[in-house]
Request: fold
Amino acid sequence: GWGGWWFWDPSENASFMPWLAGTALIHSLAATEKRSAYKAWTVLLAIMTFALTLLGTFLIRSGTLTSVHAFASDPVRGQFILALLAITIGGSLILYAVQASKVNSQNNYGLFSKEIALLFNNVLLAVCTFVVLIGTLHPLIIDAFTDNKSSVGPPYFNLMFSIFFVPILLLMPIGQQINWKQQEMLPLLKKYWLLLLLSFAVMFALTWLFADSIKPMAVFGAALGLWVMAGCFRYIQLQTSKAKSFTIGLSKISRSYWGMITAHIGVAVTVIGAVLTSYYSIEKDLRIAETETVQVQDFSIYFKRFENLQGPNYIASQAHFVVNEGGNMIAQLRPEKRKYNASQMVMTEAAIDPGFVRDLYIAMGEPLDDGAWAIRLYYKPFVRWIWLGAILMALGGLLAVSDKRYREKLRNKISHKKKLKQQELV
Reply:
């Protein structure tokens, strides 16, 4: 509820790394299931995803990391988790090293094929995971082996992660349309190059019309998100073009493919939200007294009144602000400073005016001279798209899992086992 997200915080990275590795695993499993390819690599990804999950638990629960989101500082618990990590992951990797050579995968595919596209996807996601891992553990390594202290902040993560994630976004629409085994690339590229140019042109036009300034990196990042979204709709159009009607074509798309489309749209929505929020957010510290009005870009903020309130277990100092934009009232916000009776702790309660394309926040600071207050205004465009995209990604996973072909495979497997047992009894 504070107008953004804690990104590149070490404790958040601890959750982000297994998500990246798990995403690579899902895509690798598609090649393993469909074409019996990358079997050993898929097993290794499964081990590494679980390893990163345990590593994240160790980092957060042991107190090794310094973060406002670390749950505990318990060295004994940390030692237990570290021992569990060493036993389970060490044992898994030893078994993998011994048995991996016995796992045979099919390699009958060309250079331009879905198998290669999924391999490229896996490599990029693995490198992204490694980049985040190095940035997260670097301060711990420096502290353990030297007397120096170091910190790795957003500049490193933003640059290094973007270098490897941008190609994923660029190739995602093409990768989901490419065929197994072999694909002629020129006919496929002809179907998409105009869509890529159109995505950049549309985003530039929207930025020019609605934003105060044009920021090239914001346009580039948001255009990539729009390109991924447009590629998903283009995929639907191509999949239904050979059917007798559009509705019949839609009905022939399986749930697993709907899951893929929904998840990819979710990635696009999150990318657009993250990029636009990062580049076009406004954060202003203001001094304002009762009955005064301050102007922040297009917003006019009027301090209507101030009052003290008695809560169930706290005393609150509440301010009433009226926010106008273009001469029209868009919100009435009532932020508070609360002092709790039991602990005498003072907490700040931000007032939020949510919206689909922007969120507006006001938080109270400290009282100043002459009855004035220090307040902070947050304007966060498209911040809710980050969470909307996450919901769509999760929904895509649920759609894929619910595909009937997986249930049919399970039923066939159970039936086969029953037949084998009956034969053994006979």
About this structure: The chain has a mean pLDDT of 85. Residues 134 and 250 are 44 Å apart (CA to CA). Residues 114-145 form the longest helix (32 residues). The two ends are 66 Å apart (CA to CA).
